[in-house]
Amino acid sequence: MPGMQSDEWLNRKCLMTKLLYSIAGILFGNAFLMMGLGVFSTLISVDLVQSGTAPLVIGLVQSSYYFGFILGAIGASHLVARLGHGSAYAALAAVVCCATLGHVIFPHPLVWALLRMIEGACMAGLFTVIEGGLHLSVSNSLRGRVFSFYLTTAYLASSLGQNLLKLAEHDSTKPFILIACLFVLSLVPIMLAEGNAQGAAAHTTVKKTSLSMGSLRELYRVAPLGIWGALAAGTLNGSFYSMMPVFMRGVGYSVVEVSGFMGGAMIAALALQWPIGRLSDRMDRGWVLFGVGMLGACLTAAIASYRHGSWLKPMVFVYVSLSFTVYGLVISYVNDLIADHLRIATSASLLMLFSVGGTVGPTVVSGVMTRVGPTGYFVVISSVMACLAVYALQMKWRDKRIPVRADESA
Question: I need a surface site. Which of 52, 65, 158, 333 has the fewest CB within 10 A?
């Protein structure tokens, strides 16, 4: 009996070690990916502004990325189910590298819109692999903190990547080449993580499911707040990356200043990830979403009224730290309520909804900015945050019962 217990303990330790290595590989791979992706959207906007492209055209070019994201999310779970996590990631990373270099070869807004659509489709698959792998590895009681750490490393890497934008003042081709190199480097830890995940998977059986209208209906039935929360998160994030550089340039900031501001904003995005993730593990995530939405709506309304001055940057940084927690809260909220075999399809569903928001957001924001000026950005964002808060409150009043999490009911 003691020998059997010792063997069981060693097996559990081996399994936990493989899972930890798998999670670490996913996080490192995602860090390289985000280091390139974080500056990519900013670089596109700045390059188009410098070439004299109208804000509405910039918004449409950037929105095409999220349109491609929608298409990619629809097919991502099918591809992952067919090829496996590692092979699917490798294939999509190769395509996105080629598309990135295409911006250097074909410097035209129409071609860039097509390339952005291809990049969006590939990124949907890459994030499906990353987020699906993470959610399969953690329990509900730790999900908020693990996912907040995932987002923290992502935003930190994105902030570091913003420094590549400084190269655009002297040579507009170098940043694109370096971004492609970072996308290639993300393959190494992801493929190593896949090997560890396969070892851990020998102890568990997870049924693979693909994204379909049925899975979207099931998601709406189980977690309607997740649907609208993912749309809001996509609108907030997509508009920030695409149109904040346009806002900054519109109010007189230089390219170097925009680079510094965007890098600082990514650092600000880290500030509340862990505290809010930990808070959401201790109380109902729906109420946390309500609080974040309400605070964000009030703050952005104040920014729209404030317009200029020494307090503008600090106020925007506080807004960023709030708004960038929305996606992690939504993902954790939904994954609390679903079974393991639905996680890949759910990740693809939420990414698709996120991309719908990201497609609509920059287009709407650019249209409002064209009509009312740069502060139109914050008018739209304040409305989105207010709608998220109101819907979260409505869901809490409609359903008074406290959701029972899977690991609590076991």
Answer: 52
Flag whether 239 is in a domain. yes
CA proximity to 334, closest of 153, 144, 149: 144
Can you give the length of the chain in residues?
410
Query: Contacts by 300-304 with C-beta closer than 8 Å and gap 24+?
Result: 300/378, 300/381, 300/382, 300/385, 301/378, 301/382, 303/375, 303/378, 304/375, 304/378, 304/379, 304/382
Annotate 61-106 with DSSP letters as a single string: HHHHHHHHHHHHHHHHHHHHHHH-HHHHHHHHHHHHHHHHHHHHH-
Domain count, the chain: 1
| Domain around 96 | 10-409
Establish if 379 belongs to a structural domain.
yes
Tell me the pLDDT of the chain (410 aa) as tens digits: 554 455 555 555 555 566 666 777 778 888 898 888 878 877 888 788 777 777 778 878 877 887 888 888 777 777 777 777 778 888 899 999 999 999 888 888 889 999 999 999 998 888 888 877 776 666 666 666 777 778 778 878 877 877 777 665 556 678 888 889 999 898 888 777 665 444 444 344 444 445 555 566 777 777 788 888 999 998 998 888 778 877 777 767 777 777 778 778 877 877 888 788 888 888 888 889 999 999 999 998 888 877 666 777 788 889 888 988 898 888 888 877 776 666 667 777 887 888 788 778 888 888 888 888 888 888 899 999 999 999 888 877 765 544 444 444 43
Q: What is the CATH classification number for the domain harbouring 24?
A: 1.20.1250.20
pTM over 0.85: no
In-domain check, residue 34: yes
| Cα–Cα separations (whole angstroms), residue 350 to 143, 201, 308 | 16, 24, 36
Q: Is 31 helix (H, G, I), strand (E, B) or coil?
A: helix
Q: In terms of Cα–Cα distance, which of 58, 74, 146, 148 is closest to 109?
A: 58
